[in-house]
Amino acid sequence: DAGVIQSPRHEVTEMGQEVTLRCKPISGHNSLFWYRQTMMRGLELLIYFNNNVPIDDSGMPEDRFSAKMPNASFSTLKIQPSEPRDSAVYFCASRGASTDTQYFGPGTRLTVL
Amino acid sequence: SQELEQSPQSLIVQEGKNLTINCTSSKTLYGLYWYKQKYGEGLIFLMMLQKGGEEKSHEKITAKLDEKKQQSSLHITASQPSHAGIYLCGADIGDKIIFGKGTRLHILP
Fold first, then answer.
1. What is the C-alpha to C-alpha distance for residues B45 and B63, in angstroms, rounded to an integer?
2. Distance of alpha carbon B31 from alpha carbon B33, whole angstroms
3. What is the phi/psi pair of residue A96, to 5°?
């Protein structure tokens, strides 16, 4: 099993630019989670999907952030326009229906200059 | 999140020594997860506890959930350099998991 796949692994962009982060969950998992990790705030849940449907997006910071899951094998997290305070490591995690355990991807380290 | 506190924030231990990391919730836990994160990498699942008083072990790492299900401890016996990293606890609060800020563990040779 390839595990959760995230791309890109590193992203450096300038303030105001659009950023798109991608995630491929583990095959067969029906829940997908997007997290953001910073030194100050730790690991925060942004949004999660169940069967491709967004269930809880209360953690999404503001309207600049949006997430989609067009099918069971792909999700995107978009930031537009990006700001320096968005710099963080963004993790995607997936979970199967028969388990309570979330499995994390390697993360995308985003730097907004 | 202030609902989930980890202590200590950072820990430096001589190789071979034992250590304990604590995770305390302000609410009853439906489940408690322990993850390890190596610097610059993703989170690796260690173990999950659900029942009050439950204790699980994985190699030299033991975790326990207290009877009231509001606190968990992670204990490492005879620490090794491979144990170095960030340990995060995650609390199942019903419909999602919230995480503590983590404990950074350094092992001195």
1. 13
2. 7
3. -90, 165
Region B80-89: mean pLDDT is: 95
CB A61 within 8 A of CB A68: no
Q: What are phi and psi of A86, to 5 degrees?
A: -85, -10
User: Which parts of chain A have pLDDT scores under 70?
Assistant: 1
**CA distances in angstroms from A15 to A18, A29, A83, listed in the order given:** 9, 35, 5
Q: Rounded CA gap, B34 and B44, in Å? A: 9
Best of B96, B98, B103, B104 to mutate (most A CBs within 10 Å, chain A): B96
Query: Residue A88's closest chain B neighbor by CA?
Result: B40
Residue A97: count of CB within 10 angstroms of its CB: 10
Alpha-carbon gap, residue B12 to B10, rounded angstroms: 7
Which run of H or of E encompasses A20? strand A19-24
Q: Is the bond preceding A81 in cis, omega lying within 30 degrees of 0? A: yes
Q: How far does the CA of residue A91 sit from the closest CA of chain B (Å)?
A: 7
pLDDT at residue A1, rounded to an integer: 62
- Give the nearest partner residue to B88 out of A43, A103, A107, using CB atoms: A43
